[in-house]
Structure formats: structure tokens, C-alpha cells
Amino acid sequence: MTQPYTLVLRDCAQVLTLAGAPTDRPLTGPALADWRIIEQGFVACQGDTIAAVGPMSELDESWLGPETRVIDARGRVVMPGLVECHTHLVFGGNRADEFQRKLQGESYLDILASGGGILSTVRKTRAATDDELLAGALHHLEGFRRYGVTTLEAKTGYGLDAATELRLLRVAHAAGRQQPVQLVHTFLGAHVPGPEYKGRPAEYLAMLSEQVLPALQGQAEFVDIFCEEGAFSVDDSRRYLQRARDLGFKLKIHAEQLHDLGGCRMAAELGAASVDHCDYLPAADAAAVAAAGQGRTVAVLLPLVPLYLRQDKYAPGRQFIDAGLPVALSTDFNPGSCPSKNLWLAVSLACLKMGLTPHEALAAVTLNAAWALDRQQQVGSLEPGKRADLLVLGLPDYREIPYWLGENPVQQVIIGGQ
Ligand code: NIG
Ligand code: FE
After folding, report:
1. How far is the CA of 257 from the centre of ligand 1 (A)?
2. Partner of 394 for a Cys bridge, out of 50, 122, 267, 411, CB 3.0 to 4.6 A?
3. CA 299 to CA 329: how far, in whole Å?
4. Mind listing the pLDDT tens digit for each residue in 50-104?
5. By three-state DSSP, how is residue 175 classified?
6. Residues with beta carbon < 5 A to ion ligand 2?
7. What are the chain's domains?
8. 337 CA distance to ligand 1 centroid (A)?
9. Which protein residues are within 6 Å of ligand 1, measured from CB?
10. Are strands 327-329 and 69-72 parallel, antiparallel or unpaired?
């Protein structure tokens, strides 16, 4: 024996391994529910890494030493930490006032066109100090961690000028260093044209392409754009994403949120890691998007957003999966269309409104979400060699997870074996 286990979770009622399905691409079709659940299982870790997973009958007690921390998970589900693959983490203020306007019938795009929406958060963000922005980000990360999120994507997008966008990235990095949730950084300077470029989206994108993208210097891994009426056209988005790809960034897109413009297919053709929202992506187009993305582009579905925008249309997740398009789930946490960090509620809504099964929805917030962030080698499943990011849930059966609507089932969060 070399090193004893540092941590063992034993007698788990169920271990949701997320392992056992093909590993060369995100899960879709029947594979999305073809991963292994171990009844009466264990998970053993050495330091920050998973060392062994299996049924209790295979736990070799000779690997336990006096230093081994043992967690008795009797009657409880153990699963990988949640991967939250789409958030707008850093922003100033809130938009409670616009919630009232929305209740009185104003639409998301009407509020944006009147200078509110994203642009009102931009004003508050520009006016905020670094310390205020950092305090907000840390507060939200603490909330996400309590919900069991162990990896989280953080977008910029409320600065909309070169200096503030770079400032938001710096704040996001500082937040990542000051707490244990692992962050993945995305540049969303192309959220809408900055107020100084009103009505000149192409000029705004040219400014970002020439002045900002080359200056990101390893600060952002992904580049994202909001392709929508009132934001950026498909042609402008294509040009911008091509430029970002040429500079070595991985790609994401907000597309088909409110209209079917064809942004998902365009981004998949460019090899985007994910196409996000997709509420207006017709089910009949899913196979073409899957083919364009060579089975590797993930459709990130955000069911809390139509709920919060009082919209009847939800992405047809069931048909996407049946057509071979991989799906992940996320909150889209942001101050306008989803001020919620409750990814478990998104799981329930995906079952209720998008036709996913509980088994599928859990893969969509773990392994497929890891694919959407290109972290599938590190996190998203319980397999030897992966990071020891684990959750202990206060329920005995995974089918209860979406059933207890709006509850947080998390009892214990382990990040990197700690
Ligand atoms: O993903 N749709 C574009 N952007 C965000 C909302 C941003 C906001 O309203 O502040 C989203 O829904
Ligand atoms: Fe978003």
C-alpha cells in the first residue's frame, strides 16, 4: 500500500456516479440516462482526488488509516458537485423596480429598448467600486456553494466599455481566489452594444475585437455573445466569434432566447462548446445543430428564465435529447432574467416543463455541464482520477431530488477533498 485514503464516504444509500456511459462526447439520447447508480456504495479520496468508487462489498478497509476521515452516508445520496455552467456573477445593484414593471405587463425587450434592463445594471455596475462588486460576487458564490455548486462559470457583460469589462474580469478572478468554488471565466463584452454605441452594434463589436479581445491575456477562457433582436445579429455574431476563435478563445452564444434567428446553428458550426437558452430553437432543427456541432456542442437550457420572464415557451428538451442534441441545465443567474441561484429548482422545472427525466436532469447539471465548460476531464462524475468534489444529500433516493420542489437537498459539500 502507498498512501491511505484521506476521506471515505461509506454506506451511501445511492452513489450517483455519472460514470459508465461513453466518455468521448457529452451524453445524449439513451446515454443521458445510461450511467451507473450504486446502491450501498462508497467513495474514497486521496487528497483532492477520487481514488475509488464502488459497492461497499468492494471497500478495502486496509486502505483506511488513523488519519482517514470517514463520513457515514447511511440513508443518503452521494453525487458529484454541481457544475453551474452559465452565470452572470459580477454586477452592481439589482432590478427589483423592473420586477414591478414586468408584473404590469412590460416585456423584457421593451424594458431593454427603453434604456432599462441590461443597461440599467450597466449604469449601476460602472458606478460601483471594485470592493462592492467583489463583495457581491463573494456573497453569491457563498449562496451557490450552499446549493452544492463546486464549479461555476462567471461571465462579464455589465461594463460594456473596455475598461469596465476588464475590471469585471479582474473582480471575478479575485472572487475565485478568495473561496473554494472553482471558477471558469467567460468574456461577454458583447452582451448588448454599450450605451456609447447605441444603434451601432457592428462598430461596438469591431472595438471589442480590436481593443479588448487581444488584451484579455489568459484572463478569459470563453468568449460569448448575445445574438438576439436588440442585441447582435447572426452575421455580426459570426464575425465576432470567428475573430475570438482565431485568437484562441473557446466559444459560447446566447441564442434563440426570444426569437429563432439561427444563432445556435451558426455557433455550433464554429465549434462552440455550448449554445445557451434555445427556448425558440425548433425541435425540428435540433438534429442539424447536433450535426453542426459534431455531437460536442451542448445546448444549455435555462428553465428558470422563461418562468421569471412570464414566458410560456420552454426549450423542447425532450425532443432535443431524442434528436441527439446534448443538453445541460443552468440557472443563468443574473439580476434581470433570473435572480435565483437554485439549480435544484431548475432541475425540477426541466422535468416539469422540458420533459427531462430526473435521471437525465442530474446528468445535465453535472457531466454535461462540465462538457459545456470543457471540464469533463476534471469534474462532473465520480471516477478515479477526477477531483474530489462531492455532495451528500439529505435524502435516500435520487428520484426525490426534483420531487421536493424548491428545496435544497444538500447536507454537505466537499470541494477538492475538503
Ligand atoms: O442570459 N439574455 C441576455 N442576458 C441575460 C440577462 C441579462 C440581464 O437581463 O441582465 C440572460 O438572460
Ligand atoms: Fe445568460
Report:
1. 10
2. 411
3. 8
4. 999 999 999 999 999 999 999 999 999 999 999 999 999 999 999 999 999 999 9
5. helix
6. 332
7. 5-81+381-414 (2.30.40.10), 82-372 (3.20.20.140)
8. 6
9. 88, 117-118, 121, 226, 254, 257, 305, 332, 334-337
10. unpaired
